[in-house]
Amino acid sequence: MRSVPLPVSPRQNIRREADIKKEEMRIGMVCYPTFGGSGVVATELGKALAAQGHEVHFITYDQPVRLGSFRPNVFYHEVQISQYPLFDYPPYELVLASKMVEVVRQQNLDLLHVHYAIPHASSAYMAKRILAEEGRHLPVVTTLHGTDITLLGKDPGFEPVISFAINQSDAVTAVSTSLRSDTYKLFGINKDIEVVPNFICPDHFKALQGQDRSEFAPEGEPLLCHISNFRPVKRVLDVIRTFAHLSERTPAKLLMVGDGPDRSEAERLARECGVEQHVFFLGKLKNPLEALAISDLFLLPSESESFGLAALEAMACGVPVVATEAGGLPEVIRHGVSGMLAPIGDVEKMADHAEFLLSPAHHDRFKQQALKRASTFEMKRVLPEYLRIYEEVMAPESVN
Ligand code: GMT
What CA–CA distance (Å, rounded) separates 376 from 385? Predict the structure, then answer.
């Protein structure tokens, strides 16, 4: 590993396009390290790039949950925020920008790929300006994931910074067409936004076959599953309501995976609906795919969802999905093919869909179709798209 800054003369770090195609890149990957889909996407992308020989440097405040153990070409740089009595709000974005500068200098990074606009894209802009002062061009690729646009975008307190940070990125991607449209609607964007969908790594799913489900469904009942951060946008109470409607018609069990602000209310509602003995609140799981692997149906009744990575992972486990028509979900789940969609809040319709999909006449067909649909989102299709974007931003003519 390089630990000494390489001498760089003005613009010397801009490589010729022909060279770039032949060489491995040194990529800084910035993401939230927690259980959210954006961190999962960044982590899996980084691991796949590293497996191809590129050097990937994760820059974040904690080790990304899906990074796993040691692997070649992957490095993790921790952003440490010092507590100082004056700071009621520690200035994370400044420490992050400084860390970006340090890692770019020390590791001679070719580019930064930041996931989530706030504060990653704005910190990257600051790092870019600092490095420009010493004649170093730092291309920045920003990937928009959803709540950075659809929730924070509605807060006028963030709008100018998000618009600016997106416009200053060298390339911008969004994980769905729906998210790209929302971004144009909500912000003053003068940049092209490319849609690069989220993806699955098929290897993660092969190893999951044959888990034991008898602990949860001892009588062979259908097993439903929901995975999220239990925030209001996920409408976890609609998961319980849908399940309660279904339970009136057929015995079933429900796995609730994850944790967050609406968990207690969901547990209370399960008791109120009299289904608490059929609902298992499992909390956060290190590998939520293990819950999907024993499930028959996935529920995602979100208010807004730019993509719905958990739904794609369910389909990759052969689990059909009942979801809402929100945001990018129809781009992932084909209604009547790999699952069924309903209007936001229509829990009776979602229960109807669940009953239909679980019926012996339909379940097996939908399982197969879910697997087939998920295979169109394999990593091998998406990785070349990101590599092309990296090459474009590193090309000399892209320097502004
Ligand atoms: O769903 C969340 O609240 C977490 C958030 C995140 O930052 O990880 O998820 C967003 O990004 C995911 C990965 O691109 C998408 O699959 C989710 O649909 C998106 N969430 C929302 O739009 C609500």
Answer: 14
Tokens of 123: 């910190």
- Quote helix, strand, coil % in the chain, to nearest 5: 45, 15, 40
Q: What is the tens place of the pLDDT at every residue in 159-169?
A: 888 899 999 99
Question: What's the confidence (pLDDT) of residue 208?
Answer: 74
Residue nearest to atom 21 of ligand 1 (CA): 305
Q: pLDDT tier at 68 (50, 70, 90 boundaries)?
A: confident
Distance (Å) from CA 91 to ligand 1 centroid: 24
Q: Which atom of ligand 1 is nearest to the CA of 305?
A: 22
Among 50-54, 144-148, 252-256, 328-332, name the one with the lowest average pLDDT: 144-148
Looking at residue 400, its pLDDT comes to 57
Atom nearest to 116 CA in ligand 1: 7
Taking the centre of ligand 1 as the mean of its atom positions, its distance from the CA of residue 354, in whole angstroms, is: 23
For residue 307, how far is its CA from the centre of ligand 1 (angstroms)?
7
- Note the pLDDT tens digit of each residue in 134-146: 999 999 999 999 8
Angle among Cα 359, 241, 335 to the nearest 5 degrees reads 50
The second-level CATH assignment, the architecture, of 10-199+379-398 is: 3-Layer(aba) Sandwich (3.40)
Q: Which CATH superfamily is domain 203-375 in?
A: Glycogen Phosphorylase B; (3.40.50.2000)
Evaluated on CA atoms 155, 159, 161, 166, the torsion sign reads positive
For ligand 1, pick from 41, 257, 302, 309 the residue to mutate: most ligand atoms within 8 Å of CB. 309
Confidence of residue 204 (pLDDT cuts 50, 70, 90): confident
66: pLDDT strictly greater than 70:
yes
CB 31 less than 6 A from any atom of ligand 1: no
Average pLDDT score over residue span 373-399 = 92
Structure tokens at 378: 């394999």
Give dist(CA 248, CA 88) in Å, integer.
51
Task: Give domain limits for the chain.
Answer: 10-199+379-398, 203-375
Cα 39 to middle of ligand 1, angstroms: 9
Q: Do domains 10-199+379-398 and 203-375 have the same CATH topology?
A: yes
Q: Could you please report the per-residue DSSP string of 176-233?
A: SHHHHHHHHHHS---S-EEE----B-HHHHHTTTT---TTT-TT---EEEEES---GG
